[in-house]
Design a protein that fits this description.
transmembrane helix, 2 domains, PHAF1, transmembrane, nine-stranded antiparallel beta sheet, about 10% helix, membrane, mainly beta, eight-stranded antiparallel beta sheet, single chain, PHAF1/BROMI, 27 strands
């Protein structure tokens, strides 16, 4: 499934120039960056990135990469579906994108990325790998590879890793790159085309990084942030939360839909503000609801940030581990693989095995103009309610005391 941004009157196709950084990224897109940061870069330059496709596997969003594609500029950004961090940059049409390396240009319409030109620019390297089934020869540098189509009549020039470099054919011509891959070089993997693309790994995070920090939940009691060590219980004050988690990204009052409260014949939606208010921590993937009278925490809302949900890219992913009452004694232990823990990867059928079958959905939210992705379903249990997407994955988790 893919989502498309509208075209604006902007940069002509193939006319941009992006800095090529082997093993690090291209232009403003750095390997390891969260998908939200990539979208922020795109939004800042709408006249350059004017046509953008977002592709993902709707039925199982953890099975395949989330891909941001720029068809006019000939490249993809591939994000690991679990961590939602950039693992691979793939230039699939080298003639559409001009790259700058040091002070030299390569690619685009004006500077063909020939084998001889690449070899002269990046220097000597080991012989590459020839895929005879695809008819493609791949040349590797640390964190960078170039794929060259080889005409069948010259296939013998590339066999058995004996090709002389730079590669030139008997008629004096040299192949032109058809694909460029940029990937993390720390694992010493050779990433090219086809099956070797899966070897591209996300760079490791710094030891003190708060991105995808594991948040462990004791139902009805508290949240524990494992990197920072903070414990946030129900009933904590805004001052407590501010002290432990820092300034919230946003604060807004909770809205109450009067159509839910009153069985009015008037079908027009009406909302009003109540006294309760949220602290929004978008970079932590959560909201905290305070009671408007007591100013104490009454709810936590945790977001998984899956594509195919209306809130996708509004929050970063919250890496929660929710312990059922059966494993409350294991709160300080590593229970990611435990059968009694719910994580963002847990699907609805597994939730029912852990918490039991609660019957039909308590609430069903329908698709609309503002939410074109269709219905989600909310299931309630003591201390927890789960919003579930049609594919069975959890979209949000709401935690409360009673």
């Amino acid at each position: 499934m893919q989502r498309s941004r509208p075209r604006y009157n902007g940069t002509a196709m193939g006319s941009i120039v992006l800095d090529l950084r082997p093993g690090l990224g291209i232009g403003p897109f750095s390997l390891g960056m969260p998908i939200s940061e990539a979208f922020a870069q795109i939004e800042q330059q709408p006249n350059i990135y004017d046509v953008v496709h977002v592709k993902y596997y709707d039925e199982d969003p953890l099975r395949l990469d989330i891909v941001i594609s720029f068809p006019d500029h000939g490249f993809h950004l591939r994000f690991d579906p679990w961590s939602q961090r950039l693992r691979l940059v793939e230039i699939f049409d080298v003639k559409r994108l001009q790259m700058r390396y040091a002070t030299s240009l390569v690619g685009g319409q004006s500077t063909l990325a020939t084998f001889v030109a690449i070899y002269a620019l990046f220097g000597p390297t080991y012989p590459g790998i020839y895929d005879k089934d695809r008819g493609v020869y791949t040349l590797f540098y640390p964190g960078l590879s170039f794929a060259f189509p080889i005409p069948s009549q010259y296939a013998e020039c590339c066999h058995d890793r004996e090709a002389e470099l730079p590669l030139e054919f008997p008629d004096g011509t040299t192949p032109v790159a058809c694909r460029v891959s940029i990937y993390d070089a720390s694992t010493d993997s050779k990433v090219g085309i086809g099956a070797s693309m899966v070897k591209a790994c996300v760079p490791p995070l710094p030891a003190d990084s708060l991105y995808m920090e594991e948040v462990r939940v004791k139902l009805g009691e508290e949240l524990w942030f494992t990197v920072g060590g903070q414990h946030i219980p129900f009933g904590a004050s805004p001052q407590d939360v501010w002290t432990e988690l820092g300034r919230p990204c946003g604060i807004h009052q909770k809205q109450v839909d009067q159509m839910v409260i009153h069985s009015a014949s008037d079908p027009r939606p009406r909302t009003t503000l109540c006294g309760d208010y949220f602290y929004n921590y978008f970079t932590r993937g959560m909201d905290i609801l305070f009671d408007g009278h007591t100013h104490k925490i009454k709810k936590f809302v945790l977001h998984t940030n899956y594509p195919g949900h209306a809130d996708f890219n509004s929050y970063m992913k919250c890496n929660f581990v929710i312990h059922s009452s059966d494993c409350s004694g294991a709160f300080d232990q590593d229970v990611n693989a435990s059968k009694c823990a719910i994580t963002p990867s847990t699907q609805w059928e597994q939730v029912k095995e852990i918490l039991g079958d609660c019957g039909r959905a308590a609430i069903q939210t329908q698709g609309s103009t503002s939410n074109p992705f269709g219905s989600t379903f909310v299931y309630g249990y003591p201390h927890i309610a789960l919003e579930v997407m049609k594919n069975g994955y959890i979209a949000t988790v709401t935690l409360f005391q009673s």
